[in-house]
Amino acid sequence: MLNPDGVYLGNYRCSLMGFDLNRHWLDPSPWAHPTLHGVKQLIIQMYNDPKTSLEFYIDIHAHSTMMNGFMYGNIFEDEERFQRQAVFPKLLCQNAEDFSYSSTSFNRDAVKAGTGRRFLGGLLDHTSYCYTLEVSFYSYIIGGTTAAVPYTEEASAKAACPAGHAACLGFLIHQYFPQDDKCPANKRRQLPTLSETGPVAEVAAVPGVLMCLERQEVGVVAGKMKDRT
After folding, report:
1. Helices and strands counted in the chain (H then E)
2. Taking the CA of residue 29 as centre, how many other CA atoms within 13 Å lie in the half-sphere pointing to its CB?
3. Which end of the chain is less packed: N or C, by CB atoms within 10 Å?
4. Which residues are catalytic?
5. What is the mean pLDDT of each run of 10 residues along the chain (229 residues)?
6. Angle 34-48/116-123 helices, nearest 10 degrees?
7. Which PANTHER family match (predicted)?
8. How many Cβ atoms from other residues are within 10 Å of residue 67's Cβ?
9. Mind listing the pLDDT tens digit for each residue in 95-106?
10. Topology of the domain covering 53-178
11. Residue 56 forms beta bridges with which residues?
12. In the chain, what are the domain boundaries?
C-alpha cells in the first residue's frame, strides 16, 4: 500500500498532504510523496540489476463509477508487444466472473502520463508488462445477465479466488513460452488447471502467442489478435 496515511484518514484517492499519488510518478518528491519516491527508486534499482528480471507491474485501485474489474494498459509502437499485453486481461476475463475485458482499454492519454502504468511502461524494456487493475467500489455484472452483484464481503471473496488463480496462470504463461521464436509442438507445456475440472491452457508462440482456454482461443498470429469460439 502506497497511501497508508491517506487511507487512515478516509481518503480513497489523496494522500495525507492532498496529493493524488498516481499522478506523480514522473518526479516524485522524497518529502511530499515518500512512499512513491521509495518504490520508484526500488523499481529502477531492480531494473538496472542484471540478476533481476522485472516482468510485471500491476497497480491496483478501486473505481468509484464503473462496475466490474477491468484493466488499463499501454500502447506501443511494437505491435507484437502491444498485442501480447492483451493476453493477461484476456485470461482474467476468461477465468474471473467479475472481470470485464470490454471495459479494459489501452491508451497513452497525456493526462495519465504521471501514472505508474504509463511511466514504467516507457521506462522498462519490451519484456515487461505494466497494468492498472481497477475494481469497482460497488458491484459487478456477470456476462449474459443484467443483475448487478454487490461487492459484499462474501461476493468479494468468491470473485477474488478465481481472479487470483487467473493472475497466477497469466504469470506462468509469460514464463512458459519464448517471446521471439516459434515454439515447436513437442516443446509445448501443459499448464496447471484452475480447478480439478477447469480448463488446461496449452501455450505456444506463433510467433507471439497461441492459447486455447476452454472453448475460447486467443491468438496473436502475424501480429493480429483474433478471438475464435
Report:
1. 6, 11
2. 7
3. C
4. 134
5. 92 92 96 96 95 90 92 91 87 86 93 94 90 92 85 80 75 59 45 39 35 32 30
6. 20
7. CYTOSOLIC CARBOXYPEPTIDASE (PTHR12756), CYTOSOLIC CARBOXYPEPTIDASE 6 (PTHR12756:SF9)
8. 19
9. 888 999 999 999
10. Aminopeptidase (3.40.630)
11. 129
12. 53-178
